[in-house]
Automatic annotation (TrEMBL):
Protein origin, superkingdom: Bacteria
Signal peptide boundaries: none
Keyword annotations from UniProtKB, A to Z: DNA recombination
GO molecular function, one term: DNA binding
Keyword Oxidoreductase attached: no
Protein name: Integrase
GO biological process: DNA integration; DNA recombination
Length: 644
DNA sequence: CGCACGTTTGCGTGGCACTA
DNA sequence: TAGTGCCACGCAAACGTGCG
């Protein structure tokens, strides 16, 4: 005898409600025109724009597939029905109810995949879902994801419960709340967290190598390398997030005061994340010259592309290449077009083919077709972003960063973060810049740096007050770190400690030491701590200025600076001072000649050089003074012809 | 005003597409 | 046909905000 189990009324309702829900989803206009039954929704339209990130210009997709991983993973089957249809309807209705960024929908899909994984026994029927199934999905998320992601997944599972209840899709009303705890961020101080932080820092070998590579680059360096190297230098100077840097305007420099003045500042405008808020990153004094060089080089190397982008903006529908201007219907020989594109016939044909430009006659290209195709792949900047494309600093040609392909004339592309990543991190089959220039870790392994590392590094330096020691020694002061000096590889704070110790033991002479002696013993330590709280090594001595409090008041002119300490008879420092004196004297001779000729500003220039000369002579006099023991730290105090 | 919350963002990864 | 730059998606967490 056959037993026929009739569905209960509640079950019939649930099934009917699911059908109605899916029908509603099918009818929805959310996401624009998509094939509802396709496993992948291509070119999803969203009413909420994504923030401009340099590489984020293409169409968006939603994958209704099992399994995770980047595109192309082999085990990606479609989500089983009827869950599949339910999810599609769910995404459309939630987008309709409240527009979201594409990532938000993808997180929802991720939560659904966890649910899918435990629904085989239910034949993937959402009507049969019970609280324990959500528990199982949540457990799966906790097991597979990090705490913060698992928490987010739990939240989306709870949202699914809400939709099921609201539309009567479940056979019973499901009572389920997200039980996955949100991780607290107390973790910052744990040892694990500290280790994670140091893992993110650039290695000492990387920090040593970068200034050297920067110096090795010259006029013969490929633009692709120079642009990327200067970009990395900017990361060192400012610690931006990579996309904040790559979206700076070409007109980004901000200066306050005059170069040489005490309150001179140099900054770079950029758009902070979230809301595109404009902001200025003020560059630490010792790095201003590095930043200026980087900006000037990048601007120069990207100028052509920017001009093309501007032309396109100002002449809608027209292409800037002369060969593409004129009668749109004119047929041009492939060979002639190739010559204009500075390439060969076959590659020219390839450029057309890629852009689906058909050749109407054998070996001939219709001018208008190619112009249209090239204009169509110019990146589109979201209207909400405060810059037009031609105002971007980082503009290049298609394939400009390609080692083996030629840059395609007449194209406009943005520099994307992966290009910088390949440059400093490398990838399978891609040598990074450290490899190419022959630098490696002390143990011979590969140096790799991640773009965010510089941000961590600058933050850490700022916290430890060691900014000046590191930055100046590497980028602005001495050309090479002297491996033998006792003060190398110590933090600014340690160096200051050393100097204070020298004062206390009588090993330092000069103004600070004199003042200290006039104080009651109980106040001496506190006085020294305020006077010399940090330090860094310069070409000709030790600087006691705290760069955290104020930029360099004399702009690196250490010889005339009252905060400078001489290490008596240190051979390197003495040689550097003598070399500087030589240069100053020859510059002074020129300056004096120009002052006589009446060149504008020359008298001031002469005065500056005279002051520097006097300072250097005093420094050398200290090194020569037989009354001072070698190794004594000598603090010269205020000096200079104007009595500063 | 402080904390918890929801959401947007950056960064990592892997492979397709396209040039030479 | 070989090789890799460029691109898209997933993951984790940093971010701004809103609530108590």
């Amino acid at each position: 005898m056959n037993v026929i189990i009739l569905p209960s009324a509640r079950e019939r309702d649930a099934d009917a409600n699911l059908s109605a829900f899916v029908a509603k989803g099918r009818a929805s206009k959310a996401f624009g025109v998509v094939d509802f039954d396709a496993d992948v929704w291509c070119d999803v339209q969203l009413s909420k724009a994504k923030r401009i990130t340099a590489g984020n210009t293409g169409p968006k997709q939603l994958h209704f597939l099992v399994g995770t991983g980047a595109r192309g993973a082999e085990d990606k089957g479609a989500l089983a029905k009827p869950l599949n249809d339910f999810v599609k309807a769910l995404l459309r209705l939630r987008e309709e109810a409240r527009p979201q960024h594409i990532e938000n929908h993808r997180v929802m899909l991720r939560a659904v995949r966890h649910l899918h994984a435990i629904m085989e026994e239910l034949n993937y029927d959402p009507c049969r879902l019970l609280p324990r199934h959500f528990d199982a999905a949540a457990r799966r998320a906790v097991a597979m994801e990090t705490p913060s992601t698992a928490y987010a997944t739990g939240k989306f599972l709870a949202e699914i419960v809400g939709w099921i209840n609201q539309h009567g899709v479940g056979r019973i009303r499901i009572e389920w709340r997200n039980v996955i705890p949100r991780p607290s961020n107390d973790d910052r101080i744990s040892e694990d967290a500290a280790k994670r932080r140091t893992d993110k820092m650039p290695s000492p070998a990387a920090l040593e190598a970068l200034p050297k590579i920067a110096q090795l680059m010259n006029s013969t360096t490929l633009p692709a390398d120079l642009i990327r190297m200067r970009t990395v230098e900017l990361l060192v100077c400012g610690g931006w997030r990579i996309n904040e840097l790559l979206t700076i305007p070409a007109d980004c420099e901000v200066e306050e005061g005059n170069v040489g003045d005490e309150d001179y500042r140099y900054g770079i405008r950029y758009f902070a994340e979230k809301g595109y808020g404009p902001d200025i990153k003020w560059i630490s004094t010792p790095l201003i010259s590095v930043a200026k060089r980087a900006i000037s080089d990048i601007r120069r190397l990207t100028q052509d592309v920017r001009e093309d982008a501007k032309f396109i903006f100002e002449n809608p529908g027209k292409h800037p290449m002369p060969v593409l201007q004129g009668d749109a219907d004119e047929l041009i020989q492939v060979a002639d077009m190739a010559a204009a594109f500075n390439t060969t016939g076959p590659i020219m044909t390839g450029i057309c083919k890629t852009r689906q430009v058909n050749l109407p006659a054998r070996g001939k290209i219709r001018r208008g077709d190619l112009a249209c195709a090239l204009l169509a792949d110019v990146p589109v900047v979201p209207a909400a972003f405060p810059l037009k494309l031609h105002q971007f600093m980082f503009l290049i040609r298609e394939n400009e960063m390609h080692a083996r392909r030629g840059a395609v004339p007449g194209t406009v592309r943005t520099v994307v973060w992966e290009m910088i990543s390949d440059f400093i991190t490398g990838a399978e089959g891609v040598q990074n810049v450290f490899q190419r220039y022959g630098f490696s870790e002390p143990d011979g392994t590969l140096i790799t740096v991640k773009s965010h590392a510089f941000r961590h590094w600058l933050n850490t330096l700022a916290q430890e007050g060691g900014m000046s020691q590191e930055l100046i020694a590497r980028w602005s002061g001495r050309k090479d770190m002297n491996q033998n000096s006792f003060y190398d590889h110590v933090s600014g704070a340690d160096l200051a400690k050393k100097v204070r110790g020298m004062i206390e033991s009588g090993g330092l002479i000069g103004q600070v030491a004199k003042v200290r002696e006039t104080l009651p013993p109980i106040e001496r330590d506190a006085f020294l701590a305020t006077q010399i709280s940090t330090g860094h090594v310069t070409d000709i001595g030790i600087c006691a200025h705290d760069w955290q409090l104020a930029p360099c008041p004399v702009h690196g002119d250490c010889a005339t600076c009252g905060e400078h300490i001489i290490d008596k008879n240190n051979a390197d420092q003495r040689a550097a001072a003598e070399r500087q004196l030589e240069q100053v004297e020859s510059m002074l001779a020129i300056a004096e000649a120009e002052a006589v000729d009446g060149t504008l500003g020359a008298p001031r220039w002469v005065e500056a050089h005279r002051r520097k000369r006097i300072g250097l002579l005093e420094v050398i006099a200290v090194h020569n003074d037989i009354a001072i023991a070698d190794g004594t730290f000598v603090h010269l105090g205020s000096k200079g012809s104007d009595g500063r």
